[in-house]
Amino acid sequence: MRKTIKIDFVSDVSCPWCAVGLASLQTAMARLGDEVQAELSFQPFELNPQMVPEGEDTTEHLAKKYGSTPEQAAQIRETIRARGEALGFTFNLDKRSRIYNTFNAHRLLHWAQLEGLQLPLKQALLKAYFTDGQNPSDHATLVRIAGEVGLSVQRAQEILDSDAYAAEVREHERFYQQQGINSVPAVILNDKHLISGGQPPEVFEQALRQIAAM
Predict the structure, then answer these.
(1) Number of structural domains in the chain
(2) The domain that contains 74 carries what CATH number?
(3) Model pTM?
């Protein structure tokens, strides 16, 4: 009998390790096949909630936030690129020249969950930023991506032009912060098992198998 597992994937669309973690999780789920039915939901987390509208140069931002030298930053980028390549996700981090605010992207993701299209929107947003170097805070970009995954372009524009789902996103952000989540990705299985970071597929596969056997 197939076991259903609830998965809350707490993440940000500007987090490269979140893209790695999602690709790993999906690889693990594919390996499990029909053994496990996943109820996957993406929960909001902003790496840079105070980011200015125009964004900030990536190298300058990482140096200021983490104390990374340009050499260290380049080494980390190569590690991320290689991990993504092994999982079928393309990182073109040379195109990611700026870090942006992602709150509006999270509002659209909340709406997309209600429409049953949260996963394709999440994947499209990650690709837009990390593969194509697009701005995930730009309204026109967000509306276009929403339309590409089958969401209503008109409704997406209406949401961005209003405060729709802002309170819900902030409430969810506070909830996970209060649960002790201060870095992402944080993958919570059945509300009680936490897997932190961009782990390899084997880690997710083992955890899912163990929970399914309970």
Answers:
(1) 1
(2) 3.40.30.10
(3) 0.95
